[in-house]
Amino acid sequence: MSRRDVIFSALGLAVLWQISAMLLDRPILPAPTEVLIVFFRELGNELLTHFGVSLWRVTAGMALSVLVAAPAGLAIGGSRTLSRIFSPIIYLLYPIPKVVFVPIVFLFLGIGDTAKIFIIFLILFFQIIVLVRDQAAGLPVQLLESLRSLGAGRRAIFRFVYLPASLPAILTALRQSIGTAVAVLYVTELFATKYGLGYYIYYNGSTLFDYPAMYAGVIAMSILGLGMYFAVDWAERRLCKWKFVN
Amino acid sequence: MIQTNSLTFAYPRSAPLFQNFNWQVQRGETWAILGSSGCGKTTLLYLLAGLRMPTSGTVQIDGEQILRPRPRSGLILQDYGLLPWATVRENAGLGLRVRNFYGQDGKHTPEDFQPENNVDHWLNRLGLSEVAEKYPSQISGGQRQRTAIARTLAVSPDLLLMDEPFSSLDAITREDLQNLTVSLCEEQNLTLVIVTHAIEEAVSMGRKILLLGSSPRVFENQQAGQAEYRNSQAYHDLCESLRQELRNESA
């Protein structure tokens, strides 16, 4: 996906939005031009702070999930015994929509950032652990035996095979999870906070009925998600060069 | 150098592939192991490599019982076993990195191992310098197999174990690499054990041929590796006689 494609798509969507706004002609769907003016005005007010708070929460949740789930996925994928013990547990817990735990997490971890970050972590954790485990378990036997024949024991195989092999799986899991992570971020920011894009969108839309500001918040949230997609793409191009050589 | 003593091996819930199998290989010899599919060729190689353990009996190399991969044995497989995310140079240097990772512990790395970076020498010797910065997916099958050979030779082995290493290559590349392997073994004084299902490969590379089957037999083939041997009558006669043996075996 090139930047040019994204710009053209954004322009196409803006045209569609403009036509819909003109046809509907109601305050609930202001024209994109009006929203853009408010967006840049709000950036000078508090929108940037809300953006920064949301960015911190979602990034912290993602980083935490990679740090915990990737080694766990590698360990489970690389060991039949661990896989026999943990895979059924993962299968039982994976399909449960983690958003249902929001009230319980707030109850245990309080109303601060920790609870919000933990919920994002919880969702990404399962996506990453499953993908990394599958990647580790699916490594060709020949690859592992070649390395063992060179004298590599468990530690060296982990360092030279499992660890680099898990990188693409981690990045794929992150890419697949960004949409969910941003949606969950919105839900968590509806509770017990005065900062974050979720709060900003809800407050302007449902309390102040300031629709142009609400849409400005939606644009900020889209930029947050898009920025994260680009960040993962950038990391993949830097860390997994071999995937792009052909 | 290699000695199997009453070697017996069976996969779980299967008939034994070897029963009280005794075999000896002297240092510097080149052996080809030939046999029909499922006769245990690859298993025997994996037993020598320390990647499988005998059900009973022992495998000894240099007087030492093999209980785990031996640092001085180099194994080269049909599918190369290259890391797809590493360049040719990084793949060729992998064995050295593993050795540096453990240091001279005598278990993963020989106690007298000297960390010497000879990767460029082997890349050059095997004609890989031009593609050193490319990834395995960017090079040909022959170049991948050369990379696997470079990786093994870079750790200065004294025994080369090869499992059908050239079977997926085209005829010309296969012949080039067979000749290269034989000349490298002579040059480095390596002992070679190559497993193959191709009669011509066994006869052109193995000065001794072990034919596995109901009762394993050894064929002498001292002219193997010599120039023009492939075009000689002796070569064709031995191929024909081995072909007949294999036919009788499968009948």
Q: What does this 3D model show about the protein?
A:
With about 250 residues, chain A is mainly alpha-helical. Chain A has helices at about 5-25, 30-45, 45-80, 80-95, 100-110, 115-135, 140-150, 155-190, 195-205, 210-240. In chain A, helix 3 packs parallel to helix 10. The longest helix of chain A is centred in the C-terminal third of the chain and has 35 residues, at about 155-190. The mean pLDDT of chain A is about 90. By secondary structure, chain B is an alpha/beta fold. Chain B is built from 8 helices and 10 strands. Chain B has a 6-stranded mixed sheet with strand order 6-7-8-3-9-10, with helices on both faces. In chain B, strands 2-1-4-5 form a 4-stranded antiparallel sheet, with no helix packed on it. The mean pLDDT of chain B is about 85. Chains A and B meet through helix 7 and helix 8 of A and strand 6, helix 3 and helix 5 of B.
Strand share of the residues of chain B?
15-25%
What is the β-strand count of chain A? 0
Structural class of chain A: mainly alpha
Order of helical and strand elements of chain A: HHHHHHHHHH
Task: Quote the beta fraction of chain A.
Answer: under 5%
Largest sheet of chain A: none
* Mean pLDDT figure of chain A: 89
Would you list the SSEs of chain B in sequence order as H and E?
EEEHEEEHHHHEHEHEEH
Q: Report the uncertain regions of chain B.
A: none
Number of E-type strands of chain B: 10
Which structural class do the helices and strands of chain B define? alpha/beta
What does the radius of gyration of chain A come to? 22 Å
Q: Could you give the distance between the termini of chain A?
A: 16 Å
Instruction: Assign a percent range to the helix content of chain A.
Output: over 70%
Please give the share of residues in helix of chain B.
25-40%
Low confidence ranges of chain A: none
Query: Helix segment count of chain B?
Result: 8
Described by strand count, sense and barrel closure, the largest sheet of chain B is:
6 strands, mixed
Distance between the termini of chain B: 35 Å
